[in-house]
């Protein structure tokens, strides 16, 4: 049995220890905001934070996160990263970034991690940090604009 | 035994259920969740379709617009409510969209069934939904006038209120119940465009917050009691059949509940995805591979090229030249062969469908572009009348045509499994299932022979297209294929807006055994590449500027000419660029709209960098400029992804790609800066979602030619610049 924390609550996970965190979140915990896109850490739709760092939950077995803290898109606004998360989400809404929206949980989680590390990223910094998050609708230009806008709003506040 | 009254009228039933739902409905159709099967058991064919199946106003003044099209990124959850709200004159901040289930009320006004495709969601709804809004407004006005005992000409509306003599005012919420009892007026006048307050105004999407906070519910997110997950072992070769299977090792995987053979594979059903996936991995299937097992892209290429060079005597002629022998009299000819590959749609949300079979019918949850077709297909598999199959339209994580399948492949598969499993089942395709699952944009070879006169003007044009038919062999064939010509194979060539004399277009339809389907912009996804790179080649042959050359041939097409000039002007066409950069232009008309694009490219080693794209777009009347801009950006990104990297290949009948590591798609570092310029005006809206996809591949290819003089006639472009 694996024990870890999801969005501040302890989880005693009794299913197979090789279960990827993604499917533990979605199937066992009912947290469907984290998305399945590729199953092999290629697309970033499943990005969550593990002890504060962005990871691909589709290739992270629950056996590897014993005692660690997972934060998902549903809860990111209520953590110590809440201020950054709100700025990112507000910028996403203001710039009308989303289209189908399926990849956007992962985009937001990656963007929050980027802005925490680098409060004033350049386009090149953004491209590097967000290269692992595929969007088939092609929202990339507005993703860049929204990250710049979020950075500006955090600086002002 | 408790029995329900049998003769509850449809109208009465719906009235009571609307009261249950706590929302009042103007008109009398509410897509209820309870008792649908009883309601639909009543004869309904002769009932006129209530015009306000689209509008609900709550007592609290909230306005819900039922969105008859699938929301899969293109923004109908916002643009269609805008159409209703414009005429309803309500408070936009109280409006939300809700995806409509399958129902005859929600049929496409031009195509006669409920579907999303052909860049048609806004234009086919433009009058219908404004009318629904205007009818709602009139009924609210009448309700207020009756209450105040004044004539309807004495009342007006303002932002969710009816205002009467002496400044009396009642909110739409206060009036909704009384209004719902009134007859629906049939002769409402619609606003003149000059009076629009919402249409044409940049308007943010209504679904953004749900989509950035993890709340939005896609098909894959459906939760139901006792819901199981199915993962299917699909054939390694198209058309292969299951000869037998060994599930011994599957049964030892914890959580696995069923192993079920379907028409095209073997499904493993479990209590959760991971168990089902592990179960599938443990399954051993013996396949009868069939004739496609020897198919390879190499072999197809050789065969297609041979056919293109020498079409059969009975090849179908899609466009006949006035003087077919004019080519023989030409001063010289330019001959070019083009090739485009199979392409997977690769939407972010892997295909899935949830099915629950109950005693009184069945219920589906699916992000469907083809509700009517999918509902009928599900009914057939389940042995039910379509009216007993409730299909809930879920948000879809992209689709690009893949969710509009005339043969409903993944819906049928999910129904087969649920029927046999006798438990609610969510069938989930893995990314590998999706990439290898077929229904690709077809591979095509074009052979173009252009005859030039002594002054290098076009004298004749012989065009042969070789590839498989999207529509042939489907239920749509009888309706859409005429004289052996699938219009989706030749659109963009046979109907070219260029003034080309003596043009002959020949189609050779192949049947390689690979399932094919429409892929964002359908035939235009390959024909624009061929036409626009050839135009560039002809301009060079005539020693003319590519814009000036096109201008002459488009003199009679103001829409095309308009976007050509706009893109050229905004891109600084003809002005100097930094060393190592070059521009290319392309212009194409599709889905009633015209789009011109100028791409600026450079090479980093042999890697192609697209730095900037200037797009000029004429889609008639613009409903939401913010969405149109997003769709142009997205359509270019989608087209560029295919143009640079997209390629599905086969060897020994097997698809050689499987996931995003070997089916490369555009990522953020590959994304150019895109500027979008919309041509103002226009009476009615035309297509938005697709028309910006076709021009990008030729614009980039033409820029590469401008850069280094090398003509690229094969997609994808990656690898073409290796010295």
Could you list some keywords that capture this structure?
heterodimer, A: 157 residues, alpha+beta, Ubiquitin-like (UB roll), DNA polymerase, domain 1, 2 domains, five-stranded mixed beta sheet, 5 helices, 13% strand, globular, B: 723 residues, Aldehyde Oxidoreductase, domain 4, 3 domains, 27 strands, 29% helix, disordered N terminus
Report on this model:
The complex is a heterodimer of chains A (157) and B (723). Chain A has 157 residues and is α+β, with helices and mostly antiparallel strands. Chain A folds into two domains: 2-76, Roll (Ubiquitin-like (UB roll)); 79-156, Orthogonal Bundle (DNA polymerase, domain 1). Helices cover 38% and strands 13% of the residues of chain A. Chain A contains five helices and five strands, in the order ββαβββαααα. Chain A has helices spanning 21-28, 82-94, 104-117, 123-130, 140-156; strands at residues 2-6, 9-13, 47-50, 53-56, 69-71. In chain A, strands 2-1-5-3-4 form a five-stranded mixed beta sheet, sandwiched between helices. In chain A, a hairpin with a 2-residue loop joins strand 3 (47-50) and strand 4. The relative contact order of chain A is 0.16. The model of chain A has no long low-confidence stretch (mean pLDDT 97). Chain B is an alpha+beta fold and 723 residues long. Chain B has three domains: 10-203, Aldehyde Oxidoreductase, domain 4 (2-Layer Sandwich); 219-290 and 351-428, Aldehyde oxidase/xanthine dehydrogenase, molybdopterin binding domain (Aldehyde Oxidoreductase, domain 4), CATH 3.30.365.10; 297-342 and 440-708, 2-Layer Sandwich (Aldehyde Oxidoreductase, domain 4). Helix content of chain B is 29%, strand content 22%. Chain B is built from 18 helices and 27 strands. Chain B has a seven-stranded mixed beta sheet. The radius of gyration of chain B is 28 Å and the shape is globular. The model of chain B is unreliable at 1-51 (pLDDT under 50). Chains A and B meet through helix 1, helix 2, helix 3, helix 4 and helix 5 of A and helix 6, helix 7 and helix 17 of B.
């Amino acid at each position: 049995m694996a024990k870890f924390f999801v969005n501040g609550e302890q989880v005693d996970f009794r299913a197979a220890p090789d279960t990827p965190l993604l499917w533990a979140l979605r199937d066992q915990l009912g947290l469907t905001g984290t998305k399945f896109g590729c199953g092999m850490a290629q697309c970033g739709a499943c990005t969550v934070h593990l002890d504060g760092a962005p990871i691909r939950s589709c290739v992270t077995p629950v056996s590897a996160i014993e005692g660690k803290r997972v934060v998902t898109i549903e809860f990111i606004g209520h953590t110590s990263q809440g201020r950054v998360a709100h700025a990112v989400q507000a910028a996403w809404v203001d710039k009308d970034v989303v289209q189908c929206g399926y990849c956007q949980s992962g985009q937001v989680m990656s963007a929050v991690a980027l802005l925490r590390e680098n409060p004033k990223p350049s386009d090149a910094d953004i491209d590097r940090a967000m290269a692992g998050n595929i969007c088939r609708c092609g929202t990339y230009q507005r993703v860049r604009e929204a990250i710049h806008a979020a950075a500006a709003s955090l600086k002002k506040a | 035994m408790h029995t329900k009254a049998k003769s509850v009228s449809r109208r009465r039933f719906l009235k009571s259920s609307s009261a249950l739902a706590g929302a009042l409905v103007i008109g009398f159709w509410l897509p209820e969740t309870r008792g649908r099967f009883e309601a639909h058991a009543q004869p309904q064919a002769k009932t006129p379709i209530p015009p306000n199946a689209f509008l609900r106003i709550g007592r609290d003044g909230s306005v819900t617009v039922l969105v008859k099209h699938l929301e899969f990124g293109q923004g109908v959850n916002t643009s269609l409510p805008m159409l209703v709200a414009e005429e309803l004159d309500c408070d936009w901040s109280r409006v939300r969209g809700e995806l409509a289930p399958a129902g005859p009320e929600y049929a496409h006004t031009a195509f006669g069934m409920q579907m999303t495709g052909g860049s048609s969601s806004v234009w086919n709804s433009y009058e219908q939904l404004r009318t629904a809004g205007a009818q709602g407004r009139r009924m609210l006005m009448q309700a207020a006038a009756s209450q105040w005992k004044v004539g309807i000409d004495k009342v007006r509306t303002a932002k969710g209120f009816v205002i009467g003599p002496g400044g009396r005012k009642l909110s739409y919420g206060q009036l909704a119940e009384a209004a719902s009892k009134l007859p629906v007026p049939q002769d409402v006048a619609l606003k003149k465009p000059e009076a629009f307050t919402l249409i044409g105004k940049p308007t943010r999407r209504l679904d953004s917050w749900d989509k950035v906070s993890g709340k939005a519910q896609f098909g894959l997110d459906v939760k139901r009691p006792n819901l199981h997950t199915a993962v299917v072992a699909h054939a390694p070769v198209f058309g292969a059949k299951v000869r037998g299977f060994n599930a011994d090792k599957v049964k030892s995987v914890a959580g696995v509940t069923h192993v079920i053979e379907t028409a095209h594979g073997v499904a493993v059903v479990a209590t959760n995805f991971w168990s089902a996936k592990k179960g599938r991995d443990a399954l051993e299937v013996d396949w009868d591979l069939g004739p496609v097992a020897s198919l390879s892209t190499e072999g197809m290429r050789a065969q297609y090229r041979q056919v293109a060079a020498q079409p059969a005597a009975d090849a179908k002629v899609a466009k006949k030249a006035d003087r077919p022998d004019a080519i023989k009299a030409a001063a010289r000819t330019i001959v070019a062969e083009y090739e485009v590959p199979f392409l997977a749609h690769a939407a972010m949300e892997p295909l899935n469908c949830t099915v629950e079979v109950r005693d009184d019918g069945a219920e589906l949850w699916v992000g469907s572009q083809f509700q009517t077709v999918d509902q009928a297909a599900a009914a057939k598999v389940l042995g039910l009348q379509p009216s007993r199959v409730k299909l809930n339209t879920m948000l879809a994580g992209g689709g690009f045509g893949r969710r509009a399948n005339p043969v409903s492949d993944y819906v049928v598969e999910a129904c087969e499994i649920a029927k046999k499993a006798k438990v609610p089942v969510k069938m989930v395709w893995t990314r590998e299932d999706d990439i290898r699952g077929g229904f690709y944009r077809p591979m095509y070879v074009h052979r173009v022979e252009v005859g030039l006169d002594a002054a290098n003007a076009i004298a004749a044009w012989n065009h042969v297209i070789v590839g498989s038919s999207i529509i042939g062999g489907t239920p749509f064939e009888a309706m859409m294929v005429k004289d052996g010509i699938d219009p989706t194979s030749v659109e963009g060539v046979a109907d070219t807006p260029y003034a080309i004399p003596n043009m002959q277009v020949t189609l050779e339809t192949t049947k390689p055994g690979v399932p094919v389907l429409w892929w964002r912009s359908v035939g235009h996804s390959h024909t624009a590449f061929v036409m626009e790179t050839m135009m560039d080649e002809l301009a060079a042959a005539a020693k003319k500027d590519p814009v000036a050359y096109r201008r002459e041939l488009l003199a009679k097409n103001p829409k095309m000419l308009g976007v050509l000039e706009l893109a050229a002007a905004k891109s600084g066409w003809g002005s100097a660029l930094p060393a190592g950069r070059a521009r290319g232009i392309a212009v194409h008309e599709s889905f009633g709209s015209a789009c011109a694009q100028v791409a600026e490219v450079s090479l980093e080693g042999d890697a192609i960098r697209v730095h900037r794209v200037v797009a000029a777009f004429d889609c008639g009347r613009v409903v939401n400029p913010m969405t149109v801009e997003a769709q142009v950006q997205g359509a270019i990104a989608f087209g560029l992804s295919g143009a640079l990297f997209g390629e599905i290949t086969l060897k020994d009948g097997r698809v050689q790609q499987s996931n995003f590591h070997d089916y490369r798609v555009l990522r953020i570092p590959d994304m150019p800066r895109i500027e979008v310029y919309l041509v103002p005006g226009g009476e009615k809206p035309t297509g938005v979602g697709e028309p910006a996809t076709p021009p990008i591949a030729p614009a980039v290819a033409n820029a590469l030619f401008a850069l280094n003089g090398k003509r690229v006639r094969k997609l994808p472009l990656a690898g073409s610049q290796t010295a």
